[in-house]
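Minutes, project check-in
Item: structure for the 87-residue chain
Input as provided by the requester:
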Amino acid sequence: MDLEFVGIDPETEHEGSPTVWLRREVEEIVVQGLKADGELESTVASQSWSPGHAVGIPDHEAVVRIPFRMIPILRKACDDAERPDVR
């Protein structure tokens, strides 16, 4: 599996940090984020955020938090993923 590193939280220390990669062969942006605490996860899971959508968090999904300071990294990942030479 090929992962293309895009960026890491600029305020990272030396262990586990929010990170962004591209996985081009399946056209995905992969994000390692901060785990949501129980209260946040419960809030997300307790509502249907879109008409017709089920309430809850499916077992194959997770709620992660991404610091605002990583917006430039996420923007770069989106821009890189949309480059015409990589599709």
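Outcome recorded: Strands lie at 4-8, 19-23, 28-32, 34-35, 64-65.
No further action items on this chain.
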